[in-house]
Task: structure prediction
Amino acid sequence: MNNSVFTYPLPANEPVKSYLPGSPERIALDKELERQSKLTIEIPLIIGGKNIKTGNLGKVVEPHNHKHVLATYHKAGEKEVQMAINAAMKAHKEWGETPWTVRANILLKAADLIAGKYRALINASCMLGQSKNMFQAEIDSACELIDFLRYNVAYASEIYSMQPKSAPGQINSVEYRPLEGFILAVTPFNFTSIASNLNMAPVMMGNTTLWKPSSTSILSNYYLMKVFAEAGVPAGVVNFIPGQGSVIGKVALASPDLAGIHFTGSSSTFYGLWKSVGMNIDKYKTFPRLVGETGGKDFIFVHPSADAEAVANAAFCGAFEFAGQKCSAASRMYCPKSLWDKVLKGMEKRCKEVKMGGVMDPQNFVNAVIDEASFDNIAKAIEYAKKSKDAQVVIGGGCDKKVGYFIEPTVILAKDPHFKTMEEELFGPVLTVYVYEDKNIEKALELCNTTSPYGLTGSVFAQDRLAAEKVCDALRYSAGNFYINDKPTGAVVGLQPFGGSRASGTNDKAGSAFNLMRWVTTRAIKETLVSPTSWKYIYMK
Ligand code: NAD
Result:
């Protein structure tokens, strides 16, 4: 038995590769893109380490070329969800009792496999299946994913070493037990790294999971399952069950062994899950931990002292990278009248330069939105704005779903600060701007704080640093991640722990020790060295 006392230091962040033409990473990625483009693979469920086929099939298509089928996948029914619960419960004891350093080393091996041998495989599947260009795939399915794995090992190391004081004659310790039951990891389409982390954060702390992937990110998620197995994650520790959310949720949430939900997705889905847990609360063996990162209506607040060119650039990148499908994407902006013309011109210039299309052409900055339902929803909102007297589409507005689900980068100018697209999350490349009179800045701040139910990300642009501080204070609860003179996207693990409150989630900060703490239930142990034998108080003796 290895009896070393071991700590893992904080790692360096995984460097983002350049993908310059002719670079080794570019050659490997191009080859892998070509290889995967020619395949239509079959994706089974993976329960207790075994491939399970149900025959109830769904399709994985390229969002930018939706006739192209990349894979078919088997969907779990109620029976398979129960099988997955049984497998997770069976693996629970052994995995929870595996030395934490062994669990850590398995996660570190998974990180190294993705950083090296499987980088091109995971990135290409994310590009093709989720329509990300190579930069967006690299920062997600390689770097952020690797950082989550490596940082969580270091944070676990810190947590396990947090111990209470011992008084004379006694030795105190705290044991960090995994939760008593399984964790349901319900993952979103938009970040492969988040899909991985919603499983691997609880797994690091000794838990076992049921993984319900989004039906539009199954390709990259399936390849990840294979990497986890190669890294040494034992059978039954993560059970991969694609399928309909309502079917999986119904069975998993009715199980007395549900110990937690690790969720990222829309607020409405999380409200539904929370309600179901509430309805079942007296059936569970333990109060389930509910951790959810949900929607956003992320803002840029522009102060009259701001640099208009920097604002235009941040608004453009923050709103349109990955077709606006980051939970942190800038989707509303408050701009003073004195700067609006310059900011608008800056955005127009960039929108003219930008190319939109499939992921195989590296010059395409904007790719497709994820699926038809999302396309229709965004197109409808743009149409609504075009027809409304309270708004004007000032940039873009074109939508075309013949080949892929393409929406042009679009800017809506709202005359009414409560216009629909100022308030509701759209999840597409659409930025709505409200222009305020410079003298009414206090009112604009109040609008920014109260207009939407969310509190995820936001930023202020101001060259007057004291003014920026005042805005930061006025918007204290409007964002869990706040930026000064930067776009509200692009949080990096270990540098800006991520998450928001209000309707944006439980703010347990993915990629931090706070999050890992939710996946343990502590036991305090006091050992008395010499047990007393007299019941008398000292003054009675
Ligand atoms: P979604 O809510 O549609 O789906 C999320 C997951 O929930 C999917 O796997 C889906 O199949 C599953 N699901 C749906 N109904 C279910 C049910 N009844 N029971 C069990 N599972 C169910 O979200 P999405 O479209 O995949 O992702 C986009 C959303 O995610 C946006 O709202 C975005 O803001 C949010 N998001 C938030 C963060 C964050 O950190 N706050 C990060 C990424 C994405």
